């Protein structure tokens, strides 16, 4: 991770859970981290904690609604003005709604596509363009995916969400191929966790907190820090090493 000191990383969905853990880890390793979310109060608190801890990097909170392309483009413009550009892009933001294929609401499906697929793609495009215009040839784009992007969960509430994560699997491989065709050494990686104990289930099952709690009580889950460790492992690999897909799940999780 030594070569990333002083470089700029963007972490989407950085206010809680995996995003917050990744942002903290990168600041700890000396990076300038732009952490974005719709609400930056928690990111501001995390930035103060990182500063108090004496970490060598910095965390810069940025308010951004990732379902709005104009917000994303404004964010990249601000990063260019203030920090030259993005060297590492961590597409972490994602959400799920309980909307089955046979009865789900179109607006909820669209919201999942907007955040899980389109925002990820827009951030990827803008991050690559930022690297290209500055002749950055060692950048890295990491998509935080899900095991739901590799097998269909047998639950109607999860089916559309899984479809968006299958898209992330395909987009990451497509990105890797396009980067190869562009003869660049910028790398693309997909990290696919199983059940991670965060606020995700409580947001997903917001009308049934007992169901959400049961998700995390059934087995010893992954922690957000486990995913952050996977991110630093991937970033810390030698520049000639392409780590395409990291699948990780709790030992007690069957599928």
Automatic annotation (TrEMBL):
Keywords: Oxidoreductase. It catalyses: 17beta-estradiol + NADP(+) = estrone + NADPH + H(+); 17beta-estradiol + NAD(+) = estrone + NADH + H(+); a 3beta-hydroxysteroid + NADP(+) = a 3-oxosteroid + NADPH + H(+). The keyword Oxidoreductase applies. Pfam families: adh_short (PF00106). Pathway: Steroid biosynthesis; estrogen biosynthesis. Its EC number is 1.1.1.270, 1.1.1.62. One of its GO terms (molecular function) is 3-beta-hydroxysteroid 3-dehydrogenase (NADP+) activity. Catalyzes the conversion of the 17-keto group of estrone, 4- and 5-androstenes and 5-alpha-androstanes into their 17-beta-hydroxyl metabolites and the conversion of the 3-keto group of 3-, 3,17- and 3,20- diketosteroids into their 3-hydroxyl metabolites. Exhibits reductive 3-beta-hydroxysteroid dehydrogenase activity toward 5-beta-androstanes, 5-beta-pregnanes, 4-pregnenes and bile acids. May also reduce endogenous and exogenous alpha-dicarbonyl compounds and xenobiotic alicyclic ketones. Belongs to the short-chain dehydrogenases/reductases (SDR) family. This is Dehydrogenase/reductase SDR family member 11.
